[in-house]
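Hello Y.,

Per our agreement to keep a running log of every chain we model this quarter, I'm adding this entry. I've kept the format consistent with earlier entries: sequence first, then predicted structure.
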Amino acid sequence: MVEKQENTTGISIFYFDKDNRPTAQQIGETTKLYADVFAGHPWYEVNTCADCGKHFGSDSSIETPCSNCGGVLAPAYPEEQTRKQIEDFFDKPNATMYLAESEGKIKGFAWGFLRETSELVSTKFAGENSTQFSLAIREAIPQERMFYINEVGVNKDLRGRGLGKLLVDNLLTIANQLDVPAALTTRIDTVLTPICLKTGFKQTFGQEVVIGQNGKVVVTGRTLVGLKDEPERTFFVRSNL
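Predicted structure for the entry above:
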C-alpha cells in the first residue's frame, strides 16, 4: 500500500520503496520533470557530449560538435534511459522516494538511499582532489554509512512555496530512522542550498555560503575544499538526530 500525505496547499506527497513502487505513469511524469529541472537554472543540462561529459544549454543542438572536445552532442537525459535509471534506483539499499502531486500531475521528486562512505569518495570524488575530499568527508562522516539524498527537484511554478523543504524533511526522517547522517551534493546557487543551511546541514566543501540578514544565500569568499573545474559544487552533511 502506498503511503500518502495531504497538506493544505492541495499537494499530495507519496512514499515509495522497493516494495511499493511508483506506477508507470508516475515514473513517466517524473522522468519528464527530471529533465525539465536539470535543463533550467543553474544546471542548464539540455545536451551533453558522450566523449567528455560536458553539458550544454538550450542554445545547443544535438548531433553538433562539442566545443570542448569535438565529440557529438546528444540529449542529456533521453527519456528511455532516464526512465530506466529511475526504475533501477529501487535496487539500491534502503531506496526511498517521495513524489509530490498536484492536480493529478507530478510536481516534485526526492529520493535517497543508504550509501557506503568509501564508495561515495571513490566514485563521485575520484581525481586530483580525491585525497582532500576523502579527508573532508571522513571528518564530517566518521561512520561507514550515510543516507545519501540523491536527487531533489520541484516544478518551477511551485518553487518558493516550501515544497522542496517538505520533500527533504521526509528524507531526513528516513535518515533518522536508520540512525545515520544525511548527505547530499549540489551547487551553491541552487534552491537546495538555503534549505540545507536552514535545516541543520553542515557544508563540508565548496565555496562557503551562509544565510544573510535578508534571508538569502551569501558567498563569504572563503573556500573550503573545492573542485578545480567546478568551484560552485558543494557537499552538505547533517548528523542524525
